[in-house]
Write a structure and sequence with these properties.
Layout: E1 6-10, H1 15-24, E2 28-34, H2 38-42, E3 49-53, H3 63-68, E4 71-73, H4 77-82, H5 85-90, H6 100-106, H7 108-117, E5 125-126, E6 136-140, E7 149-152, H8 155-161, E8 169-173, E9 178-187, E10 192-205, H9 214-217, E11 226-233, H10 241-258, E12 266-274, E13 280-286, H11 301-307, H12 313-326
Helix pairs in contact: 1-12, 6-7
Bound molecules: adenosine-5'-triphosphate.
Length: about 350
Amino acid sequence: MNRPYTIATLGSHSALQILKGARDEGFKTLAIANRETERLYRSFAFIDDVIGVDRYSDFMGLLGELEARKCIVVPHGSFVAYLSLDEHKKMTVPYFGNKAVLDWEASRELQREWLARANLKLPRHFKSGAEIDRPVIVKLYGAGGGKGYMFIRDAADFEVRAAHLKEAYTIQEYIIGVPLYIHYFYSPIANKLEIMSMDRRYETNVDSLGRIPAAAQEGMDVSPSYVVVGNSPVSLRESMLAEALRMGDDVVRVSKEICGPKGLFGAFCIETIITPDMQFYVMEISARIVAGTNLFIDGSPYSYLNYSESMSTGRRIAREIKTALLSNNLRSVLDDSSVL
Ligand code: ATP
């Protein structure tokens, strides 16, 4: 029934999950892979076709072919890494999601404004090293996956270790608590927000510093780093779920005010740190499927509550596209630039 349409994505990040979900929902599937990953994506039976490119940035050259094949592109984290905002906006191939959200996500200032308007608690932001009055994390712009972040104790520590940095950075209050990444799906068709799953990241070396007693660390030149090497599943204390849902609802509500009537829809993730008084502090929002959802290709405890079947975030995306097609309303789940 959905076979005339092909769900296409870049072979990276969460492509396996997206394409498996698309196949399970009856779509044809296509991966655009590079020379190193082409063989991997060809090895899966649920991927109908693989187009090999030398570089992911060559994706833009394939747009005509994707349109001819009746593709619907489902973006994931690597799209933002490999294609510029301008390239995103130039694409007229059917695109799941609202590209207007990208501007609000890409700028740390706009993102803060969005999250603050949604009544989320944010770590304090310091404009300069001189203002620092508590431990902070210094985040280099363009750093990804927690690479290149620095934990700084105080203003004097900043002077010694960070004041000389040439790259642009932001200085954020360091929140002491446990990180929790909440994966949501907002359906514009049902006007309903679902919690799909949750994960925590496994980061080296910050997640192992507790294995060495603080007294033994004294005098050793160790400082925490936040390089992500894996993810593990988490289920949240049930009494905290209502607030998790409230945060997602408010993020979607505000997005409709700031990024046109469609606002943010589909998959997104709010990255939080929970303090001992059980407050969620929000570090960031990712406005699309995040790699932490790969833990739940077979569904999560939360998605099971809603579906009683294996429902990954990737499959949930395909289900939404299918529902839109069945009600002759495909545009409701595509960016307005999409030419059908
Ligand atoms: P990605 O783009 O992959 O989500 P990123 O580079 O944007 O990653 P963040 O998610 O902002 O990085 O942060 C990486 C890690 O740094 C977090 O998982 C967390 O452990 C730590 N971190 C970030 N901000 C704070 C903060 N304000 N307080 C304490 N720890 C933080």
